[in-house]
Amino acid sequence: MARAAAHVADAIEYVKGQETTEALEQAGAAVLRGKAQFVSPFALEVAATNGSKTRLLGRKFLLCPGSQPYVPNIRGLRSIKYWTYQDLLQDPPVELPSTLVVLGGGAQALEFAEAFQRLGSQVTAYWQKGPRHLPKETCAHDKRDLCS
Fold this sequence. Notes:
Layout: H1 2-18, H2 21-26, E1 35-40, E2 43-47, E3 53-57, H3 85-90, E4 99-103, H4 107-119, E5 122-127, E6 130-133
Parallel strand pairs: 4-5
Antiparallel strand pairs: 1-2, 2-3, 5-6
């Protein structure tokens, strides 16, 4: 588990260095700062603090504004030790849990569920439709030895 956690930490540090606005600008990306609003289904307008406006046109827009973990209001949750995905990225566990319940069916929840499954934890992912045990078939053939 320590080796996997170290690899994840190294990858996060690398990506952080690539995701700064300065790094994006140096790579040739246009970085706009200001308040954005859709002015039509195909146009996004960004108003800078100096009053200038830039209009971006497109057929599709991919929104990636970042996210914060949502902690649901479940009775008793606040009295137990739990992780959010940010906790796992900032301070990964030293030992692999033998069992893990993942609350949520979104991309991040299922990515972590699969990662822990591949590392050897018995994982149950739970979302509104109820618990779902991840099948062993989710493990890649070359990683089967990590799935127990």
